[in-house]
Write a structure and sequence with these properties.
The complex is a heterodimer of chains A (374) and B (135).
Chain A: H1 8-14, E1 31-34, E2 39-41, E3 59-60, E4 75-80, E5 86-89, H2 90-95, E6 98-106, E7 129-137, H3 139-146, E8 154-159, E9 171-175, H4 176-179, E10 185-187, E11 189-190, E12 193-194, E13 204-206, E14 219-225, E15 239-241, E16 256-258, E17 265-270, E18 276-277, E19 280-289, E20 295-301, E21 309-310, E22 312-313, E23 323-331, E24 334-344, E25 367-373
Parallel strand pairs in A: 4-14, 18-25
Antiparallel strand pairs in A: 1-2, 2-3, 4-5, 6-7, 7-11, 8-9, 8-14, 10-13, 11-12, 15-16, 17-19, 19-23, 20-21, 20-24, 22-23, 24-25
Chain B: H1 3-6, H2 11-31, H3 55-63, H4 69-72, H5 78-90, H6 100-110, H7 128-134
Classes of the chains: A mainly beta (374), B mainly alpha (135).
Chain lengths: 374, 135
């Protein structure tokens, strides 16, 4: 029996209105931003563990998932500016030495729905982010087997997304320096299990610390290019204004740059926004991450930002992974605004308000929940 | 706990009964009673846009490639809708020139910046077996 058929009082206690719930195999109580194509957001209350279970991990698809993909027929080619273009089967890829990276993957558009004025795109709240242990061969090992030419300066990824209409294919590239980093992978596994289809089975790029769009799913072609790939999802897609603009203003493509690494950010997993809680000791907890940087501290305010107290950071850490954090709040009765503010090892601090941009990327404003203490 | 204990005449045991009986009743309700009737199953996808003069044409033009839910969640100004419609036409949406402005008006009226926020549904909670595998 699934909880989907549970009596209402149980479903209510679990926080999921089951009468309206949509059955999606392999997914667990996710916020459905879209089903066709699949875009699923994690409720923030799931951010209570260092590793996010796969059924709780957000799913971002730009178009339809491949419908005809099998492990037997799948191939990955390596070509372009290389000495020996080659093609690998899945068993051949799996024979290469595997490496693991715990990485916080965040969609560039996470928090888009919170910008004002709103901008077009999937209206993500705070949960298009998660942390998993990704495993697979290093991309650099695959590239070096093919014999890199000095003219290969960018590495292009093409996935097997099924393109509707005349939509441009989902092809992006990363600079060679990031491609050759020892932590950049062709991931075949997530949290110790083969990738599920929603997460790019049988192989995806894993570009740690960078926006999720860099980590192309259903990877089938790797091509060395002399310059950055020129296509919709590199330009005008996934770009930020070079200078802050007035909210609502348009920006010329030549005045933008590609979005790469993630910002410093924290999110409050509990208590939930709008919750009513009993006075006394209340655990305030969440997660904080900073892309290629580490988290130096997370400060909590329970008085709307007038005073700040450091939270305790969780022991589990890895270079590209978030830190869970917690703070034991001695709460008295009343209405409160709880804020979380992360600072990273590059001294970047979460801002009061994120910098508005026309595509709604990298919203890293200080997080806030309002609670009623009785 | 057993039913025999419930028949105990010892005062101490008797005092514990109401609590035990309550818990047992709850357990029985969960394990034995059928689940309350659920509401109508929520469609995985929204297949139609709201009623209006462009409902049929807008649904046909947009739903060919993606679920109308992607439109329903937007809250955009007329200028932003105009840019989106033009981009989608470039990407293959079949919109006759004569319908362009009416389509922008329809989308702006139904999914404008002044509309109340869209509440996204949730997926069902996973089966217990799936949860165990995830750990």
């Amino acid at each position: 029996m699934s909880f989907g058929a549970a009596p209402r009082f149980l479903a209510s206690a679990l926080g999921v209105p089951q009468d309206d719930a949509i059955e999606i195999p392999g997914e667990d109580g996710m916020i459905v931003r879209s089903f066709r194509f699949v875009d699923l957001e994690s409720p923030v209350e799931y951010f209570n563990s260092w590793l996010t279970p796969v059924p709780h991990f957000f799913v971002r698809n730009h178009m339809h998932e491949p419908s005809q993909l099998t492990a037997e027929d799948w191939r990955i080619s390596v070509g372009g500016e290389v000495e020996k273009p080659s093609t690998l089967t899945l068993p051949e890829l799996l024979k290469l030495e595997a490496h693991s990276v715990v990485n916080t993957l965040e969609c560039a558009g996470n928090g888009r729905g919170l910008y004002r004025p709103q901008v077009p795109g999937i209206q993500w709240g705070k949960g298009a982010v998660g942390t998993a242990r990704f495993s697979g061969p290093r991309l650099r090992d695959v590239l070096q087997r093919a014999g890199l030419k000095s003219t290969g300066r960018h590495v292009m990824f093409r996935g097997l997304d099924e393109v509707p209409g005349k939509v441009p294919p989902f092809i992006r590239s990363i600079p060679i320096e990031k491609a050759l980093d020892s932590d950049t992978l062709i991931a075949t596994h997530m949290n110790g299990a083969p990738l599920t289809k929603h997460h790019g089975f049988p192989a995806r790029a894993l570009v740690p610390g960078w926006i999720g769009a860099a980590s192309c799913k259903w990877l089938t072609e790797i091509k060395l290019l002399e310059s950055e790939f020129a296509g919709n999802f590199m330009n005008p897609g996934y770009r930020l204004p070079n200078q802050p603009v007035k909210p609502g203003d348009a920006v010329k493509p030549e005045d933008t740059h590609a979005v790469t690494a993630l910002n410093v950010k924290s999110v409050i997993a509990g208590p939930s926004d709008g919750a009513t809680v009993r006075a006394g000791s209340i655990p305030v907890h969440g997660a904080a991450w900073a892309g290629e940087a580490g988290i130096a501290k997370v400060d909590i305010s329970t008085d709307g930002g007038a005073t700040w107290i450091p939270a305790k950071l969780g022991a589990e850490q890895s270079r590209y992974a978030w830190r869970v954090w917690s703070y034991e709040w001695k709460a008295k009765r009343g209405e409160f605004s709880i804020l979380s503010r992360a600072t990273d090892t590059q001294a970047r601090v979460q801002p009061q308000a994120a910098v508005w941009n026309p595509s709604g990327y990298l919203n890293n404003a200080i997080d806030e929940v309002k609670v009623h203490v009785v | 706990m057993s039913f025999e204990r419930s028949n105990s005449s010892r005062p101490g045991r008797f005092r514990k009964w109401p609590c035990g009986l309550f818990l047992l009743t709850i357990l029985a309700a969960v394990l034995v009673l059928p689940a309350l009737p659920e509401g109508p199953p929520h469609a995985r996808t929204i297949e139609e846009l709201p009623a209006g003069p462009m409902q049929v044409k807008a649904t046909a033009a947009c739903a060919e490639c993606h679920e109308p839910r992607i439109i329903v969640q937007q809250r955009l100004t007329k200028a932003a809708w105009t840019k989106e419609v033009d981009k989608m036409i470039k990407w293959g949406a079949l919109v006759e020139s004569a319908d362009h402005d009416a389509l922008v008006d329809y989308l702006s009226a139904n999914f404008g910046a002044d509309q109340p926020p869209y509440e996204a549904p949730r997926s069902a909670l996973a089966k217990v077996e799936s949860k165990k595998k995830a750990k």
